[in-house]
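In this section we walk through a basic example: taking a raw amino acid sequence and producing a predicted 3D structure, encoded as discrete structure tokens. The instruction is simple. Fold the sequence below.
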Amino acid sequence: MPVLVTRDVGPIEAVKASADLLRRTWGENLIGNVGLGIVFGVAYFALAIVAVGAAWPWRRRPAAPG
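The resulting token sequence is shown next.
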């Protein structure tokens, strides 16, 4: 119980304060994780498009005459 240690309160008040702190920071963490997920998802998608574009000429080689 970090609140119990850092503040001079009883155990019930400490649990309430910890729950309030968790509620406030949970949303911030969720938004941060979703934001980073979107950024890296777009980066990986762009990298995949570049990789497919770079590999495309070797897939469509014309057959050798003869």
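Looking at the output, two observations stand out. The radius of gyration is 27 Å. The mean pLDDT is 81. In the next section we compare this with other chains.
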